[in-house]
Amino acid sequence: MQLLIQSGDLGPKWFHVALRALVLMAEQKSMVKSNQLADAIGEDPTFVRKILAKLAKEELVKTFGGRYGGYVLEKDPHSITVLHVYQALSSSDMIPHWSLPSTGSELFISLIISKAEERFQSTLADYTIADILLHKTEPRHPTKPEK
Prior knowledge:
This protein is mainly alpha-helical. The chain has six helices and two strands. It has a domain at 13-93 and 128-134: Winged helix-like DNA-binding domain superfamily/Winged helix DNA-binding domain (Arc Repressor Mutant, subunit A).
């Protein structure tokens, strides 16, 4: 989870890339190549494929290998919550409070972080890929600086 989130931030790169790719796949309703997704999102195709591989492992997307392969949603966009995506891609490399030299504050800090994470995940559970698709707006293209 980001330490500071400002209005308009998309969160960690892996998270917003995954959500945007899933929305694009839901919109297409047919197989999409990773290069097409990467181009639309503006990311490196290898990075997109790594994310899609994790989503496939969690059975959120289905992969078809080979020259004519690609990716499709494995589940209905109404049944894929943003929390599913977050949990599929989040690492569990948390530091247990008892593993650090004690200053006396570790337990309370861990309680604060746990409570914040619970609230964060609760909010993510309220939204689906279909919700994001429903609220999608026209893409904004960067404007060229005026001379």
